[in-house]
Amino acid sequence: MNSVILPPFPSEMEFIRYALDSAAIVAMTDVRGTITFVNNKFCEISGYSRGELLGANHRMLHSGAHDTLFFRQMYRRIAAGKVWHGEICNRRKDGSHYWVDTTIVPHINDSGKVDSYTAIRFDISARHEAEEKLRDIVNVDALTGIANRRRFQEHLEDVLGQHDTDPSSVHLALLDIDAFKEINDSFGHDVGDRLLKVISERLCTLVTASIFVARLGGDEFGIVMTDMTDAQVLDLTSQMLSSLRQPVELGSFTRRCSASIGVASFPRQAVTLDELFKAADLALYHAKGLGRDRVKFFIPRLRELALRKSELIHAVEVGLDHGQFRLLYQPIVPTNQRQSPSLEGLLRWDHPEQGHIAPGAFLTDMNDPGLQAAIGMFVLQRAFGDMKTIREMALQVGRIAINVTNADFRSDAFVNRFFDLCRETDLTPDHFCIEVTEGVFLGRDYQQLEGRIRRLHDAGVEIALDDFGTGFASLTHLRRMPIDRIKIDRSFVSNLTTSAQDLAIVRGVIDIAHGMGKVVTAEGVETPEQIELLCDLGCDYLQGWHFAKACNIAHLPYVLSHMPPVPKGSGAVSYAAAG
């Protein structure tokens, strides 16, 4: 390391000037801003020579980073003889910018007037660059390079503060990619990340001074639109959806995708940022519920529905905790009178104010997987307890069938609990039937679902496909899944004797099922004519009000012993236990 030999200084003041010139950027101007002195460091950082600077106005260094008010306040202070301190962004000769920590000291002459200014500056450009990088890290989404949720919220707060008196000048749109999880699961997260980048790029092509786009997390994007009418917002968001529908090249293959958008306006539909997000989210949820790939605007009814759903969920939770739910049982009657009937366990809610409520009145609207799974566990536990009681009562009953939902199969918990109960109650799996609808097969984790159903089936549990004929791919599922029983939906049975089309459908279902080695149950049987026709068609089991309504377990002996007979074969048979 080379040592530097300092020259001798004639006075202490000369040494101070040398030290200052070595460390600081120093300049002097007159009261008009004309530069009268600069040190070497000033020349170095600005890129100008001393000859170019002296005699020029200091305004030549303005970068445009500060507004007129900034300089007006600064000059007002130093003109009054007061020291000003702050950070200034200046412009070099080559056009680049640099930041300096600046102290301006006014010089007051003998008459008490300011006649010049001395500015002492220190280069803080590196610190500002680091802060800028940090701001990028904090405010920019690392994957897509657009604004993240934090920056989006800051922007939205600023916009709402500026437009709080205009009744429809700010719109918030929330955008979700449809079926994004399936893309990740099928092709991997690398492909999913690539898709997010492409979508970000396409959304940004529509950005203007009044449109702000950010990735909020996962596959959700946020768009803030200012000074636009509802019609303009609809046109813009429709353009976004149209752009996203265009094929995307993802490595070695091409994929089409779509998105759903929910829109809410401020302050017409929400007066706070939190309310605005909730309103847009409700509109997004509504768009998804209507089939996705569409834009829906918030309407007050959505908030009412959300409140009703929240109240319903709370009421169901209370009902589970307070024993308000129970299972009623309806017989499933064999047309072969040598066989014993089975039972379907039907969930009922004994609501303290509304009385008996069937599942269709609350499970569909609730749409809460966690709570639905809790209900499924309750049904499972109760069915095992009731089957044990039925055996103790010596009733001749085949199986108890219970209905399950997607929520029951979203993990191994339901199946594991089933086998735990088998061990705890000494009941074998062949005492039970699991009834599923086609909707269960439309979930995302199809392979896991199939594995859990096969685990039950292989142990001896009967698997029944309920409401057969009302879905779009029932035959596919009938072929692929381990289905033992098909239940013909009541909508076909009710018109069986009057509709040639329904008759043809029922006959075809029975023939197909029998051809595949499966048994058939007809639901909603209410008349002797239906029974006779179903027996002629070879239907294996009948279920409906003609035989019995659902009853509690205490009434089963009476119901089973007083059921009308199936008018075929040996005639009336009592299904209650002998003795």
Could you characterize what this model shows?
The structure is a single chain. The chain is α/β, with parallel strands linked by helices. The chain is 41% helix and 22% strand. The protein contains 20 helices and 21 strands. It has an eight-stranded mixed β-barrel. It has a five-stranded antiparallel beta sheet with strand order 2-1-5-4-3, sandwiched between helices. Helix 15 links the parallel strand 17 (432-436) and strand 18. The longest helix has 24 residues, at 369-392. It starts with 11 loop residues before the first helix and ends in an 18-residue tail after the last helix.
**Radius of gyration, in angstroms, nearest whole number:** 39 Å
Q: Which strand-content bin applies to the residues?
A: 15-25%
Strand order of the largest sheet: 13-14-16-17-18-19-20-21
Task: List how many beta strands DSSP finds.
Answer: 21
Mind summarizing the main beta sheet? 8 strands, mixed, barrel
Poorly predicted residue ranges: 569-579
| End-to-end separation | 112 Å
The coarse overall form would be elongated
pLDDT averaged residue by residue: 87
User: Which structural category do the helix and sheet elements fall into?
Assistant: alpha/beta
What share of the residues lie within helices? 40-55%
Tally of individual helices: 20
